[in-house]
């Protein structure tokens, strides 16, 4: 069954085509700088050896034009993988915000679309673009089922004492102000892999997703109990350009100093985190700066690791025990020095990293703890697209 997965951002579009239940995509694609004359497309075909990559730069006015390019590449007479759009049986959409309405992958109906629309105020940057891509995909693939997989869904299992803020109840009931959490598809994917690796379905896990955005989740019995992102993805860990946790009074102080609300929003989301501390947001560049003796980079890495350690301690308490730490996403999977720094001071939990394994280990699930560590330390590559394809496939199989 051909399932196309679409992950749309404000100016980008990522897609993967799966032939489910096979877990390797047939092709992957990325379109960047949509809305400009210099949009960039990279379309990789993985069914041939060596893989074939088509790259080109051209004007792409909007997401609709981007999806059209994708369909042309997918059904190209020479390099195409499908004959026509009708070969696609389902399109799985990553939708950022599902509010309290969606705890699972959901078949998209007019009512579901209305609910996604109702949630625009909670995710003003993401849900409108997700909605738009659903509408385009409905037209482009009229015979396919459209399925939404929400970033927030996995965290709907959090208990109320974890997801409520200590503010007047009406703000929760009338305005929906509560912790939602994000990166749920990734946390679900890696925590299921970890539980399978441990052979323990009720494992107590801390899943640490360190990409451009970063979040950490306490998982037990396959359920999210608490997570570091909150009402929005701004809360929690130090990220590429987001501050993570900060005293809300800082916002009022800046506004009193003459900043507009928009300026503070931009400051905390786009100019903070590693970017604010070092002038760089890419961890590889920050590592290079560290090697060159940059003191700001050294301090920023200390702050980044320290914040994660605080959350590990806190979530070990939430779980009242710990079977494994999971590292995933760009930094979590690749930055062995960061894993080393985070695990260095966790002796009280009997977390002991094996430095050699940590540096060299490869594979789908990498165990990088010492044999005497009470807690496993696992490096597990995340794969949100595959998770979306699997959830879409399972939904159709059981429907
Ligand atoms: P996104 O959240 O956009 O999906 P990724 O999961 O791809 O992001 O993670 C991007 C981050 O991973 C960047 O900060 C990048 O520098 C970092 N990263 C990727 N490879 C490495 C590496 N080898 N060492 C350190 N950091 C890395």
Explain this structure to me?
- The mean pLDDT is 96.
- The two termini are 15 Å apart.
- It is built from 15 helices and 14 strands.
- The relative contact order is 0.12.
- It is globular, with a radius of gyration of 21 Å.
- The strands form two sheets. The protein has an eight-stranded mixed sheet, sandwiched between helices. A six-stranded mixed sheet has the order 11-10-9-12-14-13, sandwiched between helices.
- Helices cover 38% and strands 21% of the residues.
- The protein folds into two domains: 2-150, 2-Layer Sandwich (Nucleotidyltransferase, domain 5); 199-379, 2-Layer Sandwich (Nucleotidyltransferase, domain 5), CATH 3.30.420.40.
- With 399 residues, the protein is α/β, with parallel strands linked by helices.
- Helix 1 (63-74) packs across helix 3 (127-140), helix 10 (283-291) packs across helix 11 (295-319) and helix 11 crosses helix 13.
- Bound molecules: adenosine-5'-diphosphate (ADP).
Domains, number: 2
The Cα radius of gyration reads: 21 Å
Say which CATH homologous superfamily of the largest domain is assigned: ATPase, nucleotide binding domain
N-to-C series of helices and strands: EEEEEHEEHHEHHHEEEHHHHHEHHHEEH
What is the terminal separation in angstroms?
15 Å
> What portion of the residues fall into strands of 2 or more residues?
15-25%
The small-molecule ligands in this entry are: adenosine-5'-diphosphate
Strand line-up in the sheet with most strands = 5-4-3-2-1-6-8-7
Q: What's the overall geometry?
A: globular
Low-pLDDT runs of 5+ residues are: none
CATH class of the largest domain: Alpha Beta
- Helix vs. strand class: alpha/beta
Instruction: Please estimate the helix content.
Output: 25-40%
Mean pLDDT: 96
CATH topology of the largest domain: Nucleotidyltransferase, domain 5
Question: How would you sum up the major sheet?
Answer: 8 strands, mixed
How many helices in DSSP terms? 15
Number of beta strands: 14
CATH architecture of the largest domain: 2-Layer Sandwich
């Amino acid at each position: 069954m051909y399932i196309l997965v679409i992950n749309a951002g404000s100016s980008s579009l990522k897609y993967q085509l799966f032939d489910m239940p096979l877990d390797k995509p047939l092709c992957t694609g990325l379109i960047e700088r949509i809305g400009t004359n210099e949009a960039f497309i990279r379309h990789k075909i993985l069914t041939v050896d060596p893989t074939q990559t088509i790259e080109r730069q051209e004007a792409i006015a909007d997401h609709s034009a981007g999806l059209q390019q994708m369909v042309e590449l997918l059904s190209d007479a020479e390099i195409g993988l499908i004959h026509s759009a009708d070969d696609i049986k389902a399109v799985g959409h990553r939708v950022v915000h599902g509010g309290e309405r969606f705890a699972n992958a959901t078949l998209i109906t007019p009512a579901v679309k209305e609910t996604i629309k109702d949630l625009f105020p909670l995710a003003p940057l993401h849900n409108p673009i997700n909605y738009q891509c659903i509408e385009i995909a409905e037209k482009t693939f009229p015979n396919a089922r459209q399925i939404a997989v929400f970033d927030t869904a996995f965290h709907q299992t959090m208990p109320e004492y974890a997801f409520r803020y200590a503010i007047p109840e009406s703000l929760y009931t009338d305005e929906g102000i509560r912790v939602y959490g994000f990166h749920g598809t990734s946390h679900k994917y890696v925590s299921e892999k970890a539980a399978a690796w441990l052979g323990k379905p009720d494992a107590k896990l801390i899943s640490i997703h360190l990409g451009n955005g970063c979040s950490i989740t306490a998982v037990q019995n396959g359920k999210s109990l608490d997570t570091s992102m909150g009402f929005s993805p701004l809360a929690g860990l130090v990220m590429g350009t987001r501050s993570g946790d900060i005293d809300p009074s800082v916002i009022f102080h800046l506004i009193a100093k003459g900043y507009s609300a928009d300026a503070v929003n931009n400051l905390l989301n786009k100019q903070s985190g590693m970017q604010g501390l070092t002038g760089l947001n890419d961890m590889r560049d920050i590592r290079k700066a560290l090697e060159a003796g940059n003191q700001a980079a050294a301090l920023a890495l200390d702050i980044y690791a320290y914040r994660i350690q605080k959350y590990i301690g806190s979530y070990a308490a939430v779980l009242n025990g710990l079977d494994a730490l999971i590292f995933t996403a760009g930094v979590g999977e690749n930055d062995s020095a960061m894993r080393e720094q985070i695990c260095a001071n966790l002796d009280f939990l009997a977390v002991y990293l094996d430095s050699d394994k940590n540096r060299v280990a490869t594979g789908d699930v990498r165990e990088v703890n010492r044999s005497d560590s009470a807690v496993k330390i696992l490096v597990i590559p995340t794969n949100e697209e595959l998770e979306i394809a699997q959830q879409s496939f399972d939904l159709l199989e059981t429907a």
